[in-house]
Amino acid sequence: MHFQWYPGHMTKAKRMMQENMKLIDLVIELVDARIPLSSRNPDIDELGKNKARMILLNKADLAEDRWNDAWIRYFEERKFLAVKINSRKGGKLKSVESVIQEACREKIERNRKKGILNRPVRAMVVGIPNVGKSTFINTLAGKACTKTGNKPGVTKGKQWIRLNRQVELLDTPGILWPKFEDQSVGLKLAYIGSIKDEILNTEELGVELIGFLNENYPEILPEKYGIDPNPDGYEMLQGIAQSRHCLVKGNELDTEKAAALMLDDFRNGRLGRLTLEYPEEM
Questions:
Q1: Domain spanning 8-171 has what CATH number?
Q2: pTM of the predicted protein model
Q3: Class for domain 201-281, per CATH?
Q4: Which of 267, 264, 129 is nearest to 196 (CA)?
């Protein structure tokens, strides 16, 4: 499979981020804890190169905790402030505000010396589609102040949200980058739902994910679906279709439906806590 998805609104969103960067003290980048590097847009390093930076490993509850901790160390060694969070349930969000203040301590001190005492820290929240930016802001703010949805492209324009007297957040649309140099990155983004499913071959994607799970978490699929282990990914997909009664007319197995079911189980944590990339590989 070849992966690419860069609709016109992403070009517009990137331009908007560039224009607003001068208003910003801090760039808060959300990544998916299951694929922390593959879910980082390389353009954001360029856009935010002169700003304080913070990385949030979102959906940390869906990834293995030992690897979450390893990734935190990886980013901290590269001079990023990093926090693992679960924005859906509010896990670790209380620590985020204090880290925001820490990230902007120099800016706050400069303002204080100039006699500017009540100016809030302004942070831009960025990330790829479907990484959980809007859910993070809603949970942090304690109210539904942005649209959310478990599909890419829900946030269409910028939105300012005042958290309190100290912090204002600028929500931005999720953007990818024009070309994936490494197609394995596109594959991982497809697994987590950051590329529109409508442009993907669901069956092929399911077989690829089965191959990864067979190699790294061989017990997961047999336990979840009550099927026999099998090195052939397509045959395992057939087993899932049979186990979950995914059938078309004539009682033929519907492997496309089975693949969609398995991908949904993976994306929502029903296969357990799984990490798809590891710091020592990078």
A1: 3.40.50.300
A2: 0.87
A3: mainly alpha
A4: 129
